[in-house]
Design goal:
The protein is built from eleven helices and eleven strands. It has a single domain, classed as pyruvate-formate lyase- activating enzyme. 30% of the residues lie in helices and 16% in strands. Strand 9, helix 8 and strand 10 form a beta-alpha-beta unit. The two termini are 18 Å apart.
Length: 292
């Protein structure tokens, strides 16, 4: 891990994040040590290293808290997505406490905040999250099987720890979006759908694996594609699960499920849709955003 000063931690939102209604992204780190084989961030321009090295490096922005303190007045009341090219609660955060310091700097200015993570470490900061008027945690729980999780997300936290974090956040009154994005192979789609419905997240979003079709944009890495073949998981399996889940609760699909907490425009009628054509698939996929 490198620890070095940065010019910024906030960037104007672009791509699917901007379309979802966010004004800013916030990234206290660059890179990630969870080594998820499907991560779209490895294809972003910030990653100047070989794709094969994704998950083996991390840059911590040493002055992240100072930058947040300086910039916070500019984001007062605006929508922030934290984070877009990393996980704000990587193991390094346990000691560096950059994300916690950023939250402390933002509280007086009350932005509408979304925290995107797959880490149970987020519960450490419940005391701060509860001080935001509009806040939500997008928690990634991508499969029902720990064996499959270890194959696709070898260094990420176990699934049960994530469910425990979800329960703690719920008990603290914090809004939760369950992100089954991408939807990894499942052992029992029906039981997984019932589990999600029983938990009752404020929002649930699903998505099939990314496909750039050779264009400059988010994609799925070769390791993830190999694993999909190994587990015999196809788009048809994904759509069947999505349809099962729709029987229990409202389901957002792809980028339609990523929007800030708080009041939404009355024109919002987004929901899931039928298996799309190739053209409509490309139109709703995450086009490549540029972030700090």
């Amino acid at each position: 891990m490198e620890i070095r000063p940065a010019r910024s931690i906030f960037s104007a939102a672009t791509g699917f994040i901007r379309r979802g209604g966010y004004d800013w992204t916030c990234n206290p780190y660059i890179g990630c040590t969870y080594a998820c084989s499907y991560c779209y961030a490895m294809f972003l321009p910030q990653n100047r290293r070989p794709l094969s090295e994704w998950g083996r490096w991390l840059v911590a922005k040493a002055n992240a808290v100072a930058l947040a303190q300086r910039f916070a007045p500019k984001v007062a009341g605006q929508a922030i997505y934290m984070a877009s090219v990393t996980d704000p609660y990587l193991p390094a955060e346990r000691t560096l406490r950059l994300s916690r310091g950023i939250l402390e700097a933002l509280i007086p200015y009350q932005p509408r905040l979304t925290v995107q993570t797959r880490s149970p470490l987020v519960v450490r900061d419940i005391d701060l999250l509860r001080q935001f008027r509009y806040v939500g945690v997008n928690l990634s729980i991508t499969t029902d099987c720990e064996e499959i999780r270890r194959c696709f997300e070898p260094k990420a936290p176990p699934l049960e720890e994530r469910w425990a974090a979800a329960r703690s956040l719920r008990q603290a009154g914090i809004s939760i979006t369950l992100c089954i994005t991408p939807t990894l192979p499942l052992r029992d789609p029906e039981a997984f759908a019932r589990l999600i419905a029983a938990f009752g997240p404020e929002v649930v979003v699903v998505q099939d694996f990314e496909e750039s079709h050779g264009c400059f944009g988010a994609d799925t890495g070769p390791r993830a594609r190999q694993l999909l073949k190994h587990f015999d998981w196809t788009a048809d399996h994904y759509y069947r699960f999505r349809d099962i889940l729709q029987r229990y609760l409202k389901v957002y699909e792809g980028e339609a499920g990523f929007f800030p907490p708080g009041p939404r425009p009355s024109s919002d009628t987004t929901t899931s849709h039928s298996p799309p054509t190739a053209q409509s698939t490309q139109s709703r996929r995450h086009t490549l955003p540029l972030f700090s």
